[in-house]
Amino acid sequence: MLTTLIYRSRVSPETGQGNVHKLVQHALDKNKANSITGILLFDGTEFFQVLEGEEAIVNALFNRIATDQRHSSVVLLMQDYSAYRRFQDTGMRLFDVSSHTEESIIEDILNLSHFKGSYLQDDRIMRLTRKFIGGIGLHITSPEFNPSSWYLESRENFEISSWPAPVPEQPCQFALQPIIDALTGKVSSYEALIRSPSGGSPFEMFQSIPADRLYLFDIETKFYAFKLAKQLLKHNEKLSVNLLPGVLYSIPGAVNILIQQISDSGLRPEQIIVEVTETEAIINQDVFHQALKELRVAGIGLAIDDFGAGFSGLALLTKFQPDKIKIDRALIEQIHLSGVKQAIVRSIAQCCDELGITLVAEGVELMEEWYWLESTGIHLFQGFLFSRPSLNDTGIIRWPLMR
Ligand SMILES: Cc1cc2nc3c(=O)[nH]c(=O)nc-3n(C[C@H](O)[C@H](O)[C@H](O)COP(=O)(O)O)c2cc1C
Known about the structure:
The protein is of the alpha/beta class. The chain has helices at about 15-35, 55-65, 100-110, 120, 125-135, 200-205, 215-220, 220-230, 245-250, 255-265, 285-295, 315-320, 330, 340-355, 365-375, and strands spanning about 1-10, 35-40, 45-55, 70-80, 95, 150-155, 175-180, 185-195, 240-245, 270-275, 300-305, 325, 360, 380, 390, 400. The protein has an eight-stranded mixed barrel. It has a five-stranded mixed beta sheet with strand order 4-1-3-2-5, with helices on both faces. α8 runs parallel beside α10 (about 255-265). The chain is elongated and about 75 Å long. The site of flavin mononucleotide has 14 residues, from α1, β3 and α2. The site of flavin mononucleotide (FMN) has 14 residues, from α1, β3 and α2.
């Protein structure tokens, strides 16, 4: 299958202009042998390359290019499939963007192609090319972008593996995982994650619950999370709990049950954040939204969980605006390498900023992911990079420090 791949990257300080020409000469010979065609734009700081060819060959080449030391911050902008090549006879042509006008470069690029008509002018590849030449669009983070100048440090042994034992005769257990403000060194809240009676996974836990008891089980077990939080959290610390939306519209008086549980455990409603995720279509919208209002009136915080996954997205946000939105981990994974994820998360961040909603990135596992998110203006994080969920405990946190 014929594929077109586009990426951007930043030239390494030791790669001089002469080396760029040498690189292109070598690439030209190799590309001819591999039936790869395309263009390479260079503005003195960043590269923008279009590669066309057989999918397996282009992917193998991109994997080599991505680890080439002559540049860094390689971000994939698009990969698409098409019936024809745009640059049929061009093994690899270098364009020096800094010393020519935008229009003359575009004209040269269009002249390289057999498809000079409006079709090529209007397509996505040309639009991205124009954006690069015009110096706008999907920028890589600032030249100071350097996650390796940071390291992680914990006040206790992070690798410690002995946690408190499961509480006997409880229908479930809870593990706590902190949501942290990485640069100020503060814990924003702890999320209570359900575990089986022996401390096993949520899957193991829910497997043993019949479908018709699920909502009742979900709400009844919240009490154990509140009890644990009362034991472990300080007076001003907050606890996030997950709630299936079905609980709010299927169980009569669900909000009052929660308020009673919070009070019985000795916590205050202001310490609790209820995270809802729309894992299934919400059948009774009116009752659901009425319950959300009642939670707010009781002083309980609200968050949309897994934002950007399944049903949990823009439609839910138009109906209610929570205090917090947690971006789904699928959007966070390898975000430093994906132009598509970067564009989506940047627009979510802008939307939340305009609406005064706090954004949390969950599932952060790599220093590069954290650094990209932090540079984009997201400050709250949850993930293995900083702290693992700890059974019946608040766990140990690793904080990022500058070298
Ligand atoms: C910005 C940039 C663009 C590159 N473009 C190509 C290319 O189009 N084709 C290619 O074979 N190598 C290209 N390379 C070089 C590859 O990363 C890699 O060094 C090369 O494919 C390995 O060649 P070799 O097997 O002859 O050592 C590029 C490198 C950089 C930094």
